[in-house]
Amino acid sequence: MITVAGVVKRFGSVGVLDGIDFAAEAGEVVAVLGPSGCGKSTLLRLLAGFERPDAGEILVGGRPVGAPGPDRAMVDQSSTLFPWLRLRDNVAWAPRAAGAADPLAEADRLLEATGLSDFADALPATLSGGMRQRGAIAQVLATGAPVLLLDEPFGALDAQTRLAMHVWLRDILARTRPTVVLVTHDIDEALLLGDRLVVLSRRPARVAARVAVELGRDRGRHTTTDPVFTGLKDRILDLLTPA
Amino acid sequence: MQPDASASQQRLLAPSGARARSAPRGWLGLIPPLAIVAVWAAVTATGIISPRVLPTPAAVATAAADFLFGTSTTTLPGVVRFEGAGPFHIAASLRRLLVAFSLAAAVGVPLGLALGLSRRVALLLDPLVQGLRPIPIYAWLPLAFAWFGLGEGSARFLIFIGALFPIVVATGDGAARVPRAWVETAVMLGTRRSDLARRVYVPATLPSIVTGLRLGLTLGWMSVIVGELTGTRRGIGAMMFAAREVGRLDRVIVGMACFALLGLGTDLLVRRLTQRFTRWALT
Fold first, then answer.
1. Does B194 touch chain A (CB under 8 A)?
2. Which of A49, A72, B68, B206 is the most exposed place for a label (fewest CB within 10 A)?
3. Which CATH class is domain A1-70+162-243?
């Protein structure tokens, strides 16, 4: 579904990404981990088509990425709900732009599926941070895009809320099965949500490791004490901590 | 709570319910104007200030009643009427303002949006706008006479100029500051480029547009008086100049009060009409 091959990105004289390779199968969640400032977000912006690589190639569904497209939808850490619209209208945005017959009905279905129906009429500013991020994800799911790009979607939330969000998102992803690239610096988040991890080195980033997460489908709070989880976490901490 | 906390600290430290109960009430705002009237009444009644320099509040109140409900004693042509002419002058000023202000909004909002959204338009027009903006309204008076003659045309032109620039500047500023993330999100959600203005830029700029309209309205009202220097015989300003000619400061103060109330009223109207579209920016 997604192929990233030899991607290089520089901003002026600063090298950010130095030959990144990875792939994601359809319906798979690939978590990209790396130290702060290593270029994870840049990688996601390249996938979204907001930036162009200086070298290398990004294919989504077999086609090269040149610009933002309806096959890819992105959520970043600062919620991007439109503040002047009620949650329902925010979620109805994509169906409306696509010319759906009844965008509000589609929004209501998604709000129901994501447990947000009670807040349909709320303005984003009146929602909690966690609720806003859920809203932003529902808004993006409404595009029906086969590829979901998540840039530290819960980075601004406190630890407890974040864990609840992980459980919520796993459930949603299991039901909607998009291909997901999740960028995060939170190892727990990567292990709870990812099927595979791509660990990046410091800037200019290269792939330091690719790790398969064999923790089964049912992951939650109990998973964080699983010996496989703690073993993987140790290994990744070693990779991310400079010697 | 600290035992030595001051009253204001105690209020801040109090639970929000208690704070709400002790929150300032709207009527508090009436105290300063009432106090001014009281002092005014005292200094004029005791003769500290001569009524020729400052008429008594009672004289002004009588003049106001006269202005609104009196019966005209003059039918001479060319004389600016006062008794009972209140509604006539108020309607004339209000109509003048609304026509000129609507035109200023119709030109100013699109121009501001274009300046804020297009770098090319900004490079082309911003220096002109910034250059014209500081010119005082009075400085336009001779040109207004030359272009529109004495009377209504000049008055409307001056109000238009007064209201235009705050609208352009506030709208442009707001449009230029629409977060890039909102535009990117809209594009990512499938919004066509041609729909971005309608769906993102305009709604996101609305609070700034409303601020511009409110400022434009205030500046518009301030320009009404200049516009009514243009030899018109209708309008609150015209009445005030006629009153000043004959030394009737009580009538001048009635005119000032009319401007104050009309300014407040139209501002309230704009706020009420736009509340629905801008309340998100306040939360």
1. no
2. B68
3. alpha beta
